[in-house]
């Protein structure tokens, strides 16, 4: 009987279920969007029941499309939007508040007060993270402080916390299993990445009881079996990783120094830094990639707030293109930007600058500037931001960049990928299967249940779709980089 692996990819705007076969090929995909809730400016929430309902419906759709059932599934792998925070009641199983999404900024002022108290290094040394509203700790604290009676119930051991992976597993096992994996735990700002435990001093600082926290497991083991009406049979849940870590694994970046960039709405770059954490001197995050058996893999991470979404702005804000697909041909209609630079700090600048008050700038405009120059400068701005983070990673790790593996929507843009290779002076490689996030979760689950025998078995599957080799005049490129750095300096708020 043919067996499959089911990957659940629970993202920020939609839930997906993808069925893979033993060759890592996609057999079926189902996707469903769910509601984004914006109670006030800078706040972003999801309804946890809607997350679960959308995920349950795509599971059913993905397996019925190809006429299989739980008996045909060897294991389930889960990957998820990472820092999003859910708190629910242990007895009623009801969430006590909406999920507070990773993008939510309501705790920014509290984060500023922690920095003013001099907590930056204390938190960074334990967690590898910078103090920011992005991570889960301040979101949990906000729920306990603002939902009537929550703090009391938390002290009585009646409340549970989880990132979205934890919530899904809790629902899939009907409340039997309360777990997460090291990669998601390392994004909470409560997990000590050296001892691999919830940190008592941090829990104390944020006034969060340990009883709320899920048990932290490896990224590839059997955590429990399904008990839902979706499956008539018990299917092992056997892999968990946060979405960016799962993409790194799906890209088979398993050697130190290997880097991937996911070009989505924002961009996320991760570098495998090996079995020891490197605390960054260049404003990158240190986090855990995955744990398989006893072996922990650490990563350096840098994010770009505005990647592919700059193309949406060219379409909706500026109106120089009608659909996103037009941007490549418009940008390719000119040989260069004619001295125009576009720093897309539309929502601030992330790594390595971390200037939340910076705003976007277009510089070098002349009478000869056209819509095509601006479109090209917008694409190049994504590549330059990527270059800044790669340079920071190389400095921190002391590991040279051999190649950049790419995925995500904007990775399909050949002009952008070629320019990326040119300015990095490094090959850029796009894989055949671009669903690398779901694939990473599938691989982790498949390893745990013996669907694939080992990592070497998986490595053989990874195939490149296209390889972009660096080209262009080195002198010109160096001058262009210099122009970019000057444009960034002009954009910074201080």
Keywords:
Nucleotidyltransferase, domain 5, alpha+beta, single chain, globular, six-stranded mixed sheet, 494 residues, 16 helices
Report a brief summary of the structure.
This protein is of the alpha+beta class and 494 residues long. 34% of the residues lie in helices and 23% in strands. The strands form seven sheets. A seven-stranded mixed beta sheet has the order 17-18-16-15-21-22-23, with helices on both faces. Strands 3-2-1-5-14-13 form a six-stranded mixed beta sheet, sandwiched between helices.
What's the helix and strand layout?
Elements: E1 4-10, E2 14-20, E3 26-33, E4 45-46, H1 48-65, E5 73-80, E6 86-89, E7 99-100, H2 108-116, H3 120-127, H4 136-146, H5 150-155, E8 159-162, H6 164-172, E9 179-181, H7 182-185, E10 191-192, E11 197-198, H8 200-206, E12 215-217, E13 220-225, E14 236-242, H9 243-250, E15 259-263, E16 267-274, E17 285-292, E18 295-304, H10 309-318, H11 327-332, E19 341-343, E20 361-363, H12 371-397, E21 404-407, H13 414-424, E22 428-431, H14 436-448, H15 455-459, E23 464-468, H16 474-491
Helix pairs in contact: 9-14, 12-13
Major sheet characteristics: 7 strands, mixed
Helix share, percent: 25-40%
Shape: globular
Q: What is the total tally of β strands?
A: 23
* Total count of domains: 2
Beta-strand proportion:
15-25%
Please give the CATH architecture of the largest domain.
2-Layer Sandwich
Structural class: alpha+beta
CATH class of the largest domain: Alpha Beta
Strand order of the largest sheet: 17-18-16-15-21-22-23
Task: Specify the number of helices.
Answer: 16
Q: Which value, in Å, is the CA radius of gyration?
A: 22 Å
- Straight-line distance between termini: 63 Å
The CATH superfamily of the largest domain bears the name ATPase, nucleotide binding domain
CATH fold topology of the largest domain:
Nucleotidyltransferase, domain 5
> Mean of residue pLDDT?
92
pLDDT < 50 runs, ≥5 residues: none
């Amino acid at each position: 009987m043919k067996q499959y692996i089911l990957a659940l990819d629970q993202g920020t705007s939609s839930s997906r279920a993808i069925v893979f076969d033993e060759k890592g090929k996609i057999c079926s995909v189902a996707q469903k969007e769910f509601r984004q809730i914006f109670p006030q400016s800078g706040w972003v929430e999801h309804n946890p029941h809607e997350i679960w309902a959308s995920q349950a419906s795509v599971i059913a759709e993905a397996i019925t499309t190809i006429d299989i059932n739980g008996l045909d599934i060897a294991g389930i792998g889960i990957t998820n939007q990472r820092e999003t925070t859910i708190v629910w009641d242990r007895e009623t199983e009801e969430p006590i508040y909406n999920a507070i999404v990773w993008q939510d900024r309501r705790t920014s002022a509290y984060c500023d007060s922690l920095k003013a108290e001099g907590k930056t290094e204390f938190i960074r040394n334990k967690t590898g993270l910078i103090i920011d509203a992005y991570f889960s700790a301040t979101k949990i604290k906000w729920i306990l402080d603002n939902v009537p009676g929550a703090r009391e119930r938390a002290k009585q051991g009646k409340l549970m916390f989880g990132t979205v992976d934890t919530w899904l597993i809790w629902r899939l096992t009907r409340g039997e299993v309360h777990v997460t994996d090291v990669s998601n735990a390392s994004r909470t700002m409560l997990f000590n990445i050296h001892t691999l435990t919830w940190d008592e001093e941090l829990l104390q600082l944020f006034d969060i009881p340990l009883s709320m926290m899920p048990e932290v497991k490896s990224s590839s083991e059997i955590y429990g079996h399904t008990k839902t009406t979706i499956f008539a049979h018990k299917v092992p849940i056997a892999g968990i990783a946060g979405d960016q870590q799962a993409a790194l694994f799906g890209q088979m970046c398993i050697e130190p120094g290997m880097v991937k960039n996911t070009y989505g709405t924002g961009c996320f770059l991760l570098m495998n830094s090996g079995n020891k954490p490197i605390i960054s001197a260049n404003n990158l995050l240190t986090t855990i990639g995955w744990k398989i058996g006893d072996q922990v893999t650490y990563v350096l991470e840098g994010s770009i707030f505005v990647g592919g979404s700059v193309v949406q702005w060219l379409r909706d804000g500026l109106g120089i293109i009608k659909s996103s697909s037009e941007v490549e041909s418009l940008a390719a209609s000119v040989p260069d930007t004619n001295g125009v630079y576009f720093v897309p700090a539309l929502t601030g600048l992330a790594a390595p600058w971390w200037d939340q008050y910076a705003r976007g700038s277009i510089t070098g405009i002349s009478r000869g500037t056209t819509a095509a120059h601006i479109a090209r400068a917008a694409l190049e701005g994504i590549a330059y931001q990527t270059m800044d983070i790669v340079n920071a990673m190389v400095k921190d790790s002391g590991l040279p960049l051999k190649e950049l593996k790419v995925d995500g929507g904007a990775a399909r843009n050949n002009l952008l990928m070629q320019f990326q290779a040119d300015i990095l002076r490094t090959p850029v490689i796009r894989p055949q299967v671009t669903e690398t996030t779901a694939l990473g979760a599938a691989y982790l689950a498949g390893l745990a249940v013996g669907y694939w025998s080992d990592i070497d078995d998986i490595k053989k599957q990874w195939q490149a779709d296209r390889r972009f080799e660096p080209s262009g005049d080195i002198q010109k490129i160096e001058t262009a980089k210099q122009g970019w750095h000057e444009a960034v300096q002009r954009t910074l708020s201080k």
